[in-house]
Amino acid sequence: MFRNIPPILNAKQLLDQSIRRTKKIQIHDREKRFEIKKIVIARTVAFITDLLSQLESYVKNFPSIDRLPLFYQEIIDIKIDTNKLKKSLGAVDWARKTVEMVYMTQSSSLTKSGNVEFLKQKQKEIYGRVSSIVKQVDKNLVFLANAQKILRTFPDIEDIPTVVIAGYPNVGKSSLIRQLSAAKPEIAQYPFTTKQIFVGHMEKMVRYEKKRYQIIDTPGLLDRPLSERNKIERQAIAALRHLADLIVFIFDPSETSGYQMNDQTLMLENIQKLFTDVPFLIVENKVDIKDTGSANRKISCITGEGIEELRKEILSILN
After folding, report:
1. DSSP β-bridge partners for residue 211
2. 138-149 burial, b for 16+ CB within 10 Å, e for fewer?
3. What are phi and psi of 139, to 5 degrees?
4. 209-217: strand order across its sheet
5. N or C end of the chain: which has fewer CB within 10 A?
């Protein structure tokens, strides 16, 4: 979806590229005056055409934000700012239309005149006016270039049964998704290793048909009001809100993550209040370090204990 957005140049790069391409154009005519006229016209047309094509591709290849799934809309607003993105796309489209209008009003002067010096002056005039228009939206082009880089990092979310793994930072969410799927998230012993949504998949044969399930690792959540959450935490909330058919909440009873069980329990209670229509599966990780003896499912992402049983339960709930 976002892979089709082309790399976006700033104003200077865009203008330099278009001018550089036009210099390659050569036309031969036995009459020198006609040769120069043809070259001037051809280069001017190519310059304008190349600019219009680039500007149009920038706008058209960005997906319509309002038509995207709600998850993507929220993530874009969190990581990029929807209003600024729409404003920049609008500004670049304005530049495209204005460049086209300037050329349409000036092009007849090129075709009608046979005066070489006039032609060169008119070409210079068109280049100057068009360059001024493109430079006016330079900050918008720079913004879109940054947005393009961010959008290309977004995961491809499928419309299939989805389990979202949630919990405090460093409780083992990334380790669990690595155990459950073929995905290989970064694993490290410090909070907020996961800086964005990470997607993996599980498969199961259902009546001779292979069925796919989506499993999502969210950034670590901290137990505080949504208004106080940082951008990383808000991505996790967006995943829970828009994607989850099942939420697997992971406890770390060993508290080696740095978070006490009282705090982890309070977070679970608060999340359950927010997502009353989504089933929860409560899991205690790091059973190799501490086993509380509670009724919650026990696993160890280090030893693999309880992983297959958890996989079966997840698939059973999602079916």
Report:
1. 204
2. bebbebbbebbe
3. -65, -30
4. 198-206, 209-217, 162-167, 246-251, 280-284, 297-298
5. C
Q: In this structure, are residues 150 and 1 in contact, taking their beta carbons and an 8 Å threshold?
A: no
**pLDDT averaged over every residue in the chain:** 85
pLDDT band at residue 194, thresholds of 50, 70 and 90? very low
Cα separation, 134 vs 215, whole angstroms: 44
- Split into its structural domains, the chain has a count of 2
Q: What is the pLDDT of residue 189?
A: 41
Looking up tokens 């961010």, which residue turns up?
A: 150
Contacts of 1 (CB under 8 A, 6+ apart): 63, 154, 156
Which residue segment(s) compose the domain that 129 sits in? Answer: 11-151
pLDDT at residue 2, rounded to an integer: 83
Higher pLDDT, 144 or 180: 144
Q: Terminus-to-terminus CA distance in the chain, angstroms?
A: 28
The residue out of 111, 126, 151 marking a domain boundary is 151
**Residue 47 to residue 45: CA distance in whole angstroms:** 5
The answer on pLDDT for 245 being more than 90 is yes
The bridge status of strand 246-251 relative to strand 162-167 is parallel
One domain for residues 280 and 229: yes
Domain boundary at 120, 151, 182, which?
151
